[in-house]
Automatic annotation (TrEMBL):
Protein name (Swiss-Prot/TrEMBL): NGG1p interacting factor NIF3
Domain of life: Bacteria
Lineage summary: Bacteria, Pseudomonadati, Pseudomonadota, Gammaproteobacteria, Oceanospirillales
Transmembrane segments: none
InterPro entries, per the entry: DUF34/NIF3_sf (IPR036069), N-reg_PII/ATP_PRibTrfase_C (IPR015867)
Secretion signal span: none
Organism for this UniProt entry: Salinicola socius
Length: 114
C-alpha cells in the first residue's frame, strides 16, 4: 500500500479527486472514495518559460489550496498518479507518495489483541 498526498486549488478539488478515485485509489476495505482533505495556503513563483494556471512568471503567487491524502494499492499507484497529473490544472502538480507498512510487519508486542 501507498499513501498519496497532493495539493489542488479549490476550483478543481472535486474533479481531481474523482479522477484519482476512478483509478482505484482511496479504497479501504469495503469503502471507496476515502480521503482526508485540509484547506491551506499554497505559494509558488513561476520561473521564465513556465505556463502557470494561476499567476505569471517571476511573480510570487499565493493561492487557497487543499491537501488531499488517501491510500492506494500497490498495483494502482501508477494509474492514480497518471490520473492526478491528467486531471490537475497545474503544469507541475505537487504530490508525495509514501510506501506504507502492513500491520503484519509490526512487532506483535506493540499491539493489544482485544
Amino acid at each position: 500500500m501507498y499513501k498519496l498526498a497532493f495539493f489542488v486549488p479549490e476550483s478543481h478539488l472535486e474533479s481531481v479527486k474523482s479522477a484519482v478515485f476512478a483509478s482505484g485509489a482511496g479504497r479501504i476495505g469495503d469503502y471507496e472514495a476515502c480521503c482526508f482533505q485540509l484547506r491551506g495556503q499554497g505559494q509558488f513563483r513561476p520561473l521564465a518559460g513556465a505556463q502557470p494556471h494561476i499567476g505569471a512568471a517571476g511573480r510570487l503567487e499565493s493561492v487557497e489550496e487543499y491537501r488531499v491524502e488517501l491510500v492506494c494499492a500497490d498495483d494502482r499507484i501508477r494509474a492514480a498518479i497518471a490520473a492526478l497529473i491528467d486531471a490537475h490544472p497545474y503544469e507541475e502538480p505537487a504530490f508525495d507518495v509514501w510506501p506504507l507498512s502492513s500491520l503484519a510487519s509490526l512487532p506483535k508486542d506493540r499491539f493489544d489483541e482485544r
